[in-house]
Structure formats: structure tokens, C-alpha cells
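Human: Respectfully, please carefully check these C-alpha cells:
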Amino acid sequence: MLINKTAVKTAMKKKNISTQTELAERLRMNKSQLSQMLSEGFSPIKTNVLKLMKELDISYKEIIIEETGDGMPTFSNAFIVAEPTEQLDLFETNTINRFDYRLDEYEDVRNTVPQHTYTLVETFAGAGGLSLGLEQAGLDSIADIELDHQACETLRHNRPTWNVMEEDINEIARLGIRNHKQFNFDGELDVLSGGYPCQSFSYAGLRHGLDDTRGTLFYPYSQLLNQLQPKVFIAENVKGLVNHDNGRTLETMIQVFEEAGYHVVWNILNAWNYSVAQKRERIVIIGIRNDLYQKQKKSFKFPKSHVYKPVLNDILRNVPKSLGATYPQSKVKILDLVPPGGCWVDLPDEIAKKYMGASYNSGGGRRGMARRLSWNEPSLTLTTSPAQKQTERCHPEKTRPFTIREYARIQSFPDSWQFVGSMGNQYKQIGNAVPVNLAKAIGQSVINYLNQF
């Protein structure tokens, strides 16, 4: 069974679609995917073909070439009127526009006090930044799911009473979390949270949905959402998710959340606005179970920005001593020439050219190279390694990277929160974490909403 390319070209002309690139855009796939669909060796999957038929308003019989017993194709010679289920207008689609779900409404929630006991299941818990912040807001953790052993040891060291499930979330979801020997909670869950990685989906069907997300870590998160049916879910991710894969990734997530029975909103929050001395923007997605949404008396609002924005001078005084990375002497000599708040542009030209390499000739490269921070500014976004050339974060006064405890302060972890593992692993745990104070603000906004029920 093959696709009749002649019929496709004829239908494209009728629809005034001049190129395969334009057709691919309308089908919400890339050009290579469309080319593969139209290639001689492609055997069409029904859902993909229906998608193509819907876009071009042509029937199954018009578009399909069937092979005879001798392997020779036979053609449907006449255009046949499509059946009603196939006669779909090109512009009557149920596509999701992610920007329709952006919520720009805020409320001061800093004085929010829980009116009930609220339960939390945390996924991709890492070193506990999100869990700790939600705890400070007033949520009680009943399970923290994490695969990395050192991160789990960090959680156990700091919160011996937490139920840390050190296991692959895919296996937990596949077998059903309520069937897991470590999961003893059988009540109604209040909040499911987590920051699953941003990954591309493999679109194979007529419309985006849960099946498109298989093979990504979003898939088990969405499975747990279906299994637990919490009142509210929190999902956080990198800002780039908004436009990842031309928006298809986020829009697919929204569709999956809606199909699970949730009203969905999102926005970009900058940690610097929530008592964190760091410019770190994250997308925060909130889902409210439809039955609650339908009977709510007041709607959910994101946390209002705090009035004062801290800078490094506010948080990096009297920091406990700890391990810290160092620069090679050759790099020390270069960064010694950079003033607080400066970067490679402050270097002598010949030194800058040598240090920057090809980046210098391509327009100067990023301002993150040879970057020394200032006491009077917040940190730039911390990474999982404190001394990467493209994202330098040199101490304001001393020519060295930030230490472990300084890293933790910048992420708004309390000094009492200890990290387990090698120095490199500790940097990774801290760099990957959600800033605690940002998590607290998000938690307060969720509690502020749930308090009405």
C-alpha cells in the first residue's frame, strides 16, 4: 500500500498549497517527515494518512495505491467523494495555541497559611529544591521519586522521615504507583509536582496525545497524573519549553493534561522576583482538576513578585566554609584582568582574541565568557558545573568559582541543607535544583487556591 503522490499534488493545487514545506507546516511536522511519508518505500500508518486526508480534503481511496498479488501497484483512477467522517475542512481543526493558556494574573501570597493538611508527591526530586520549598509553603511530602543515588542520599540525610523512592519513574508508572510497596497512601492526593526534562516527542498520529510522548520522561509523569488524579499538579521546566519544537512540545503537554481532566495555565517566573539572588527563568505549569475548577469561587493566580530583589551582597556574607572548584593558573591570570561585573570585553584585545578563539571572530561570543559577577547584581543562572568557559560565574572579589555553600546560597538553600556525594556531584545537584524560595512562592500560590475548598 503506497500513497498516490499525483493525487496529493492535485489536492495541494486545489488548496493553493504550493510547496511541500508549506504542507509540512500545516500538518505540524517537519519537511523530512513529510518526505518520508511520500517516499516509495513508506507504508502508511492509518492515523498519519487520515491526518493527510483531513488537511487536503481528499478520501482514502483517492490517496492510496494498493499493491496486487504480483507486487504491482493499482491506482484508483477517479476522484471519489470522501465519506462524511473523512470530509473534514482544513480550517476546522482542534489545534491548541499554547499562548491561549498563559495566565498573567498575580496575587501576593506571602502570608498564606494552610487551612488544611495538604499532601504532596514529588517526581524528579533531585536534591530537594522543589520539595523543600513546597514544604516551607505548607505541603507535606508523602513520596519523593528520584533515580540518582547521591541525590536520594541528600534527601534522606536532610529529611529522614521523607519517603524517598529511589527507582526509575518509568517502572513506577508502568506497574502503577498505588501498587508500589513503598507507597502506602490511599487517600485523595492534593498536589503532584515535578520538573521532567524538556524532550522532543515523536508524532505519529492524527493528533498529539499521550502516545506521542512515549520514550520521554514526560510520559511517566503524565501516567502518574492519571493514576493519582491530584487536585492540582505543578510542572516546572526550562523557559525554552515555550517554543521548543515550534511550540508543539508544550502544546502536546497541554493536550495530555486536558485529556487527563485538568484546566491548565502557565507562565514564566523569574526566581529573582521571589527572594532568590539569581536571574533564573522557568516555565511553571499549573493544572487544576476539572471538578474543582468548575466549583471554584476564586481562580488560581501566580505569586506576585516580591518588592525587593536580592543581590549577591545580600546573601554571600558569612558563608560556611566548604569544598569548591578552582581555576587553572592560566585562567586565573586572565580573569584577574576582569573587573566586577565585567567579562571578556574588558580584556586587552590580544588576550581576548586568544581566550575567545573562534567566538571572537564570529562577533564576540557570549557575554558569559570570562564573566566576573558583581556584588551589586544577582547571579546569572547557575549551571551544573561552576567553571564552564561559555557560562563563567567568577566570584566578585576572588578569582575562583563559587564554592558549594555559595552555590547553595544562590539557589536559596538553607545552610543546614547538606549535600551528599563528590564535589562535582554536589555542584550538579545544586545546579539542577529549583531555587527553594521560588518553589515556596509557587507552593503558597497553590495553597492559597486550595484553601477555598
Summary: Confidence is low (pLDDT under 50) at residues 67-93, 203-208. The longest helix spans residues 436-450. The longest strand covers residues 262-270. DSSP finds 18 helices and twelve strands in the chain.
